[in-house]
Amino acid sequence: MIFYDFDLFAPSPWVVWMFAQEKGIKFERKVIDLLARENRRAPFITDVNPLGELPAIVLDDGTALTEITAICEYLEDIQPDPPLIGSTPLERVETRMWVRRIDQKIAEPLGEGFSTEEGREFFESDKANGLQVTKTVLPAEAAPVLKAKAREKIVWISDFLKGRQWVCGDRFSLADIFLYCYLQFGEHHGQPIPEEAGWARDFFDRMKSRPTAWQGEAGSLD
After folding, report:
1. Which of 19-23, 123-127, 162-166 has the lowest mean pLDDT?
2. What DSSP line would sit under the chain, residue for residue?
3. What is the pLDDT of residues 45-56, one digit of tens each?
4. Share of the chain above pLDDT 90, in %
5. 2-78: CATH homologous superfamily?
């Protein structure tokens, strides 16, 4: 399998990479030049993902798979141990519930808050450069609202999960990887974990100590 990755830290592909490494699944890693917008041009948009986004993997038969949870579900199916989505129907639905909450309530507003403010010039340049695939950037005044929404839900999840080791209790799962990767991104791009989110801060420290955690520099779009 070929795993397509950015040359800078990006939370979406890192969720898949970390998930695979926790399972002991090995990929051939192909780095995409984010700054050169290689992901917005052929052959990537013709052969891998027409949306020009990561994560993406290409199987040995040439089949391209995209989207975080879809790829992770596939990897769980082909290598069930260790179970990171779940080994019972109840465990699986609990993991999927929390992944959905984290994705919709934290990851999406956090990511859009970044692209609307810090990443605005970079993403707006796509249209100026005549790329076929571009990102719609929200109005600048949306940035503080989006960031406040993400911050509010980080505090909420921290209060709700107080006393747990992991998102799903004692069971390490995809939900933990998902949350960690977006907290990691926020820490280095103007959206640090709120001081009042004590559980989230402790959780982040636990995750950083895992061998599969991100060890490189944060990177910049400049």
Report:
1. 123-127
2. -EEEEESS--HHHHHHHHHHHHHT---EEEEE-TTTTGGGSTTHHHHT-TT--S-EEE-TTS-EEESHHHHHHHHHHH--SS-SS-SSHHHHHHHHHHHHHHIIIIIHHHHHHHHHTTTHHHHHHHHHTT-SS--PPPPTTHHHHHHHHHHHHHHHHHHHTTT-SBTBBTB--HHHHHHHHHHHHHHHTT-PPPTT-HHHHHHHHHHHTSTTS--S------
3. 999 999 999 999
4. 86
5. Glutaredoxin (3.40.30.10)
User: Domain spanning 89-208 has what CATH number?
Assistant: 1.20.1050.10
The model's pLDDT over 169-211, given as tens digits with 9 standing for 90+, comes to 999 999 999 999 999 999 999 999 999 999 999 999 999 999 9
In the chain, list all ranges with CATH 1.20.1050.10: 89-208
